[in-house]
UniProtKB/TrEMBL annotation:
The keyword Nucleotide-binding applies. ATP binds at residues 11, 80-81, 121-124. This is ATP-dependent 6-phosphofructokinase. HAMAP family: Phosphofructokinase_III (MF_01976). InterPro entries: ATP_PFK (IPR022953), Phosphofructokinase_dom (IPR000023), Phosphofructokinase_III (IPR012829), PKF_sf (IPR035966). The record marks 123 as: Important for substrate specificity. The lineage of its organism: Bacteria, Bacillati, Actinomycetota, Acidimicrobiia, Acidimicrobiales. The keyword Transferase applies. Its cofactor is Mg(2+). Residues 3-315 form the Phosphofructokinase domain. Mg(2+) binds at residue 122. One of its GO terms (cellular component) is 6-phosphofructokinase complex. Signal peptide: none annotated. Its EC number is 2.7.1.11.
Length: 368
């Protein structure tokens, strides 16, 4: 190997810069050149968007200095510009999607890049697998704050997200207690409830609603009423943005909350529904992108560094078409094809769920 490229795709996650630093230093230690592609694959696919010629940048020891503790990604990222479904404008102004993978691979070859380390979630890893099947040497590094990627025990960014959500929930306890209110905290988690579950259990929330369990608000309302009877006038409900009510409707409101609805509104609907059912004043706090920004925890820094270094060891060992994966106590390799197009859901009988139920946390599926 003479030269490798790194790219970061999809939503950012704290720990990305640790991966970039470790991969760069480990590759340079082996005498390889390292370049970074800006904004997913855009820097290579659309160089005209980079008038200063910096769509692909040299990654030196200096350029990765002092970045491990920083959030975001020094390479930039994007959800657009998927080379397997690249948007191309037609003469009549309409847009069609074309598979530009071969063109992208040719661009790697022109620049004498021998391998790609793609750091991303399901979307980026699926693209990486497609490029690998077409002849490019690819190593994947799993990334998502949602922790919903298969075949790796966890991903960097998740620990930071849970930690920050927990700090916010702790603060909401004191104001909810003072006012005797119900506070609904909506956290990220499009397909899986890992962030909601872990932060909710760690903080002692009274109900947690996750995408894995279609919820009914009546058991949650009953939990709130019973707490009231015991003299606890406040309650905290943590909701994953992808949580959905049974039958797609919040019955007390008589309003449909279908899958087609934009993500992010469920917290408000839960708060309104609980007020209607209990008569209690409620407030909603949407943490949104706050839990994706900022500095990674020490745990996520270390995991990012381990993943970055493991990706380079994988290349040195001649591996191709694999993803580095956390398999405690080690980081090992799994086929890229085994992680794409699927989500790792919270097993509803896992010990964290059982612990939560023993703590009296309601999931909107059983009367308390
Ligand atoms: O996949 C991670 C995630 O944080 C989801 O939980 C969330 O729905 C999504 O990204 C939002 O990303 P964006 O606003 O960048 O499209």
């Amino acid at each position: 190997i003479k030269r490798i490229a790194l790219s970061t795709g999809g939503g950012d996650a704290p720990g990305l810069n640790a991966v970039i630093r470790a991969a760069t230093l480990a590759a340079r230690n082996r005498g390889w050149d390292v370049v970074g592609i800006r904004d997913g694959f855009n820097g290579l696919m659309a160089p005209e968007e980079y008038p200063r010629g910096d769509g692909v940048i040299e990654l030196s020891r200096e350029s990765v200095r002092g970045i491990v503790h920083t959030g975001g990604t020094i390479l930039g990222t994007t959800n657009r510009g998927n080379p397997t479904a690249y948007p191309v404008q037609q003469p009549d102004g309409s847009w069609v999607e074309e598979d530009r993978s071969d063109e992208l691979i040719a661009k790697f070859r022109e620049r004498e890049i021998d391998a790609l380390v793609t750091i991303g979630g399901d979307g980026s890893l699926t693209i990486g697998n497609h490029l690998h099947e077409r002849g490019l040497r690819v190593i994947g590094v799993p990334k998502t704050i949602d922790n919903d990627l298969e075949n790796t025990q966890s991903t960097f960014g998740f620990h930071t997200a849970v930690d920050f959500a927990a700090q916010c929930i702790d603060r909401l306890f004191s104001t909810a207690t003072s006012h005797g209110r119900v506070i609904v905290v909506e956290v990220m988690g499009r397909y899986a409830g890992w962030i909601a579950l872990h932060s909710g259990v760690a903080c002692g929330a009274h109900a947690v609603l996750i995408p894995e369990i279609e919820f009914d608000l009546e058991p949650v309302a009953e939990t709130i009423r019973q707490r009231e009877e015991r003299g606890a006038k406040f309650s905290i409900v943590v909701v994953a943005e992808g949580a959905r009510p049974q039958g797609g409707e919040v019955s007390v409101l008589g309003k449909a909350v279908g899958q087609a609805e934009k993500l992010g509104g469920v917290g408000q609907k839960v708060a309104d529904g609980l007020t209607a059912l209990t008569g209690k004043e409620s407030r909603v706090v949407v943490l949104g992108h706050l839990i994706r920004g900022g500095s990674p925890t020490a745990y996520d820094r270390l995991l990012g560094l381990r993943f970055g270094a493991a990706a380079i060891r994988a290349l040195e060992e001649g591996k191709d078409g694999i993803m580095v994966a956390l398999n405690p106590p080690t980081v090992d390799y799994v086929p890229l094809a085994s992680v794409t197009k699927r989500q790792k859901h919270v097993p509803i009988d896992c010990d964290t769920m059982l612990t939560a139920r023993d703590m009296g946390i309601n999931f909107g599926d059983e009367m308390p």
